[in-house]
Design goal:
Radius of gyration: 12 Å
Strand content: 35-45%
Number of domains: 1
Distance between the termini: 10 Å
Order of helices and strands: EEEEHH
């Protein structure tokens, strides 16, 4: 499991668990009571849209865009 800091005012830590055997990553932000599972086979555009739609439910649109970009970068670097 990796722990990242988003360095955004309302988000402190992002937890990322990678399951290589079943080919998915689980991302969670406990402070926002938010989590999402992203499968390896999903295209970047799908992941961006999925993250953005989900994050917009727990934070403002601009912060959701920044956070979605950071999360996609982190899960693709793993």
């Amino acid at each position: 499991m990796k722990i990242r800091r988003a360095h955004l005012p309302s988000t402190d830590m992002v937890f990322i668990y990678e399951n290589k055997k079943e080919e998915y990553s689980l991302v969670a932000i406990p402070e926002k009571q938010w989590s999402i599972m992203v499968r390896y086979e999903e295209a970047f555009e799908e992941v961006d849209e999925k993250l953005l739609q989900s994050l917009t439910k727990v934070t403002e649109q601009e912060k959701a865009k920044l956070l979605a970009g950071k999360i996609r970068h982190w899960i693709t670097e793993m």
